[in-house]
Design brief:
Elements: H1 14-35, H2 41-54, E1 59-69, E2 72-83, E3 87-92, H3 99-112, E4 116-121, E5 128-133, H4 145-157
Parallel strand pairs: 3-4
Antiparallel strand pairs: 1-2, 2-3, 4-5
Length: about 160
């Protein structure tokens, strides 16, 4: 598979992705417990990247991603971290995560074609994290009821199914 940033990527299976996200969360917990809360996002990003590399992960920081619409580039953003060419990490240093942070990560997943992302908040006393998917995996993936139905309908309209 070739993703939109023109890299050949061997997709990870669900077991590999689950193991990668466990490793990422463990490294994030270590960085957060060592540093505490209150630093800028870049401090946690560098600490987390260091911990992930120590754990044997491939880590890219501040990866430029282009957003396409109707065949043209309509915007750019930077993924905080991409781990093992597969999992996008969006780091925050806020008091509490909100729905817009989740939507931002899902949009990054849609723009890159990557399936899995982790939203990590280092701004509270305890590390807060959420795993998000480009395509709804199940009701436990963060979609339920009317919101889940709307997400599935949108995914169908966008050609994700």
């Amino acid at each position: 598979m070739i993703n939109k940033i023109n890299r050949i990527v061997k997709p990870m299976n669900d077991t590999q992705t689950n193991e990668a996200t466990k490793t990422i969360i463990g490294c994030a917990m270590k960085a957060h417990s060592t540093l505490g809360f209150g630093f800028l996002e870049s401090v946690y990003q560098n600490a987390l990247a260091h911990e992930l590399r120590k754990a044997g992960c491939k880590v890219d920081q501040q990866v430029a991603i282009k957003v396409y619409y109707d065949g043209i580039v309509v915007g750019d953003f930077f993924a905080d971290l991409i781990v093992n060419d597969t999992v996008i990490l969006e780091l925050k240093t806020v008091e509490r995560l909100n729905k817009m942070h989740e939507v931002q990560l899902v949009n990054y997943l849609n723009a890159t074609g990557k399936e899995t992302g982790l939203l990590l908040n280092f701004g509270a006393q305890s590390l807060e994290f959420k795993r998000k998917f480009r395509s709804p995996k199940s009701a436990s993936a963060g979609f339920s009821g009317v919101v889940g139905l709307a997400a599935v309908c949108l995914a169908i309209l966008l050609g994700h199914f």
